[in-house]
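Input/output pair, single chain:
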Amino acid sequence: MIILNFDEYNVHKKTIISELKKSVFVYPTDTIYGIGCDATNEKLVRKIRLLKKSDQPFSIIVPTKEWIYQNCIVTAEAEEWIRKLPGPYTLILRLKNKKAVARDVHQGTDENNYTIGIRMPNHWFLSVAFQAKLPIVTTSANITGQDFMTTLEDMDVVIRNNVDYIFYDGPKRGNLSTLVHLEGPKISIQLRQERKSSPGKIQFPLEEISITQK
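Output:
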């Protein structure tokens, strides 16, 4: 296990990006700490599922907004929400490309109507997905039903012993992202916890991330 902060990641960026494609890692977002991997790697996705003891569908951090248009069904209403990204939202959309992520990402969903939770956190870690050009599994870094990770000290020992990298951002006591259901005929917004503060804008350039409908 290697622990990195933002500056250390930047120094070794090329090597780390290559390693992340075959690794399980813990990372910060604009809400809480997550655990993730290459969302197209069935073996790694399954490992996270076993670590968390979870049978719920996983969401993903997407590398660009173009990825959403290429792989999801985007309605006019969904496009309005996509314009709000990056931000503390998880947009639930229907997948039009079922091979865009590993099958185990969808566990618990209807095989004939796959949906996916889309995240673009307002946080520097979004640049990692962008530079790796991969969707990344995003789910809370804790065993299902147990407390969320807030610092290295309260990280679950099972997860600590089974990840390759930890991107550490200091104490993080945010709330879960807001769920926005856009997969059906009506929009449904689910505030999972009251948000105490609004995150600032990310500082790295994202000119390549634009809204271009495919």
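Strands lie at 2-4, 25-27, 34-36, 59-61, 89-94, 115-119, 136-140, 165-167, 178-181, 188-190. The domain at 2-190 is CATH 3.90.870.10 (DHBP synthase).
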